[in-house]
Here is the input.
Amino acid sequence: MSRTPTPNIAEIISETICEQEKTDAIYLYGSRSKGTERADSDWDIAVLFSDYMEDLLERTARPQLLESKLESLLPDHDISIVDLREVPVPLQWNIIQGIKLYDRGIPVVRRMENAIISAWEKDYER
Here is the structure.
């Protein structure tokens, strides 16, 4: 069961990510999206970036740089960010079951979600 996350923190996270990177969608997943978090739970965030970085090092560093930026703005919170395109299908499935904090409202978001659902059904739901 999804719920609405703490508005101020979720808004700061979404706004900061969108200010720093071209973004199509942002998801909150894990315990905070389910309402099962503890006081020390981290913020699990997945980002569907608008552009694909060809360079592996840059692609890998991008979520880490966003984490650093957000943790400097929100020092009392641990924040974990992943690139939705770069994680395995089971984690992608978990992510899209969470709370969408931001959606640019373009077809690529729906296509990505549909591709994840198809991959999940094909390879994992038997």
